[in-house]
Amino acid sequence: MATVSWAAGNGDRSENGDYIYGKKRLREIDRRIRFLIKRLDHAEIVDPTARRDSDSLDQVFFGATVRVCNQRGEERTVSIVGVDEIDTSRGYISWVSPMARALIKAREGDTVILRTPGGVEELEILDVRYEALATG
């Protein structure tokens, strides 16, 4: 806002690049704020430990922490989270990622096909658990 005020004081606004750029930037910021407010209004906290149907605790759904093994015997653990919670260093993957989409609805012991730009890979689901995810 201070940049726009400063630029406005520089004279003719129709040819003032700083003013035009500042106004454009403010519109972008306002648009982003409106987007985030809408996201917050529709956000829903999901507690994966509160699953009701205990029969499906071995099945992969949103909030699951899944340990998989690929064809080379390499194990990896991932947790399926919302798009705003992705943190690959902690193994948090988005529910819309190719890996999560391959895992969703599969059960412990199943083998799923993961299609990536690098090729097709088979993953065996070793363990599915639901635990409270660390935040922050």
Structure summary:
The protein is of the alpha+beta class and 136 residues long. It contains three helices and five strands, in the order ααβββαββ. Helix content is 29%, strand content 26%.
Describe the structure.
With 136 residues, this protein is an alpha+beta fold. The protein has three helices and five strands; from the N terminus they run ααβββαββ. The protein has a five-stranded mixed sheet. Strand 1 (64-70) and strand 2 (75-81) form a beta hairpin. Helix 1 (2-8) runs antiparallel to helix 2 (17-42). The longest helix is centred in the N-terminal third of the chain and has 26 residues, at 17-42. The chain starts with a helix and ends in a 6-residue tail after the last strand. The mean pLDDT is 83.
Provide the gyration radius in Å.
23 Å
Strand order of the largest sheet: 3-2-1-5-4
Give the termini distance in whole angstroms. 31 Å
Give the percentage of residues in beta strands.
25-35%
- Based on DSSP secondary structure assignment, what is the total number of beta strands? 5
Envelope shape? elongated
Helix count, per DSSP?
Answer: 3
**Structural class, judged by helices and strands?**
alpha+beta
Q: Can you summarize the main beta sheet?
A: 5 strands, mixed
**How confident overall, as mean pLDDT?**
83
Unreliable parts: none
